[in-house]
């Protein structure tokens, strides 16, 4: 029958559908299934009724009804089958789509992540390979540019990046020259190229670069030049005549000034990092509580160490930073002569003295070389000479020094400084109970303006170098190129921006030993005399060491004495003959001749007492040695015979 078959098909299809798919497809309506069940139940019921009651319908009607039910069941069967098939297809396709989509998404993510990782690894490998290639080509195998390449560079704008790279490479090669140098290239070639590149990159003239290259090794030279390109920190000095450093720091911090103590070596210095107000226009500045002053300017005054109630001269005082510091250390006692040669700078000097509350200072306007005539010689206890200089230590403040200074300027400054330091020494009283000191300082790093000037003063005056009292700084040069200075110059101090973070500076402290100007010359002469006598004594000792030498020396002396006696007898006979010819009336003339003869002999004796020159001593010594060797050779030949 059609009904049971349809139910079996529907049941089988329903049974085949998994529960999981039913849960996922909850929105599917069960209407076709209910309609199918209804049709099945109606079909079963009519069949039973028709069998029991045949009298209700006829055979024809019964056949029509059966045919209608068969047609409806066939239609319903196909309809349900289509719905179920579409449902199953939808479920399967949906599940497969979800699974395939998830699998595809996972596959895409993995693929992309792998691609990214591979790209990163490739980039890393390429970078490492490029780095090694650059190191190999540019660093380990650095080559100086050829003449043609240098000529091409002159016709093009300067390539700063190329210059900087070449400077670093040359410095690296010079620091390990034996290992990294190019075959057939000398150190001079590298140094010459370094000079050219430094001059082009930093803007120095040839003279200044050459001097700096001679003074510093390559690595330190680059550090120094780089330090000149950066400004030094702003520093200020507390005026202890009006306030204390702690109080001043508290007030300035409240005004928005970020500061710290300068260093351990200074009790009055402050360093300013940044400020919300102009540091040179605060009420405290106007009231004279502090002075804007570079850290290097503290050093000469600290080395001078003035005492109370002393007589101090500042030979180049403007604008007054060092003078006011000296007055603060002296607590406004004693007297200070603040001299300034340039009249235009007297206004700033006077203004700062008034602002800082200094009352023990006399301002004067003279050439420093004439001050001994004005103030008198041997009248001051201490002298501070911050000499005018080329300014090669403060290039960070004045970049014009890079190109404006040459050898003639340095020599002119050196000559002026030598004259000023001699004038300063002449003004100091060597017999001062508390003083007798001269402090010489410059803001230059040139040897001709520093060590050469001090060495000149040591030769011309009776002075000596003493420690500066500064526990930091590099010692001065004892030898530099062809120069050889006094060994005590290691007591002087040099300061550099790349080492001490302050302007380039030089400080020396001298102690005057006597007020005589010729003391140094006499000491030099006495040293030469002692040396000549030492040479003579050594020669005599060598001659007395050998018996044969003694005999030969004695024979030589006897011969010499005999010759002198014979000469005296001959002179007496000549005098006697002359007197006999002149007669008795001319005895007075003979007496005069005798006196003249005695004076001549006395003069010769005095001349013998003077030490002979070194050349004569050396010549005589060599002759003696030859004579001794000849005598020894003859004696040896006689012994053999």
From TrEMBL:
S-adenosyl-L-methionine binds at residues 316-322, 340, 367, 386. GO terms for biological process: maturation of LSU-rRNA; rRNA base methylation. The active site is at 443 (nucleophile). Residues 1-11 have a biased composition (Basic residues). GO terms for molecular function: RNA binding; rRNA (cytosine-C5-)-methyltransferase activity. Residues 1-127, 518-641 are annotated as: Disordered. SUPFAM superfamilies: S-adenosyl-L-methionine-dependent methyltransferases (SSF53335). It is found in: Nucleus, Nucleolus. InterPro entries: MeTrfase_RsmB-F_NOP2_cat, MeTrfase_RsmB-F_NOP2_dom, Nop2p, RCMT, RCMT_NOP2, SAM-dependent_MTases_sf. Coiled coil: none annotated. Residues 25-38, 108-126, 545-556, 610-630 have a biased composition (Basic and acidic residues). Residues 224-513 form the SAM-dependent MTase RsmB/NOP-type domain. Residues 44-63, 88-107 have a biased composition (Acidic residues). This is SAM-dependent MTase RsmB/NOP-type domain-containing protein.
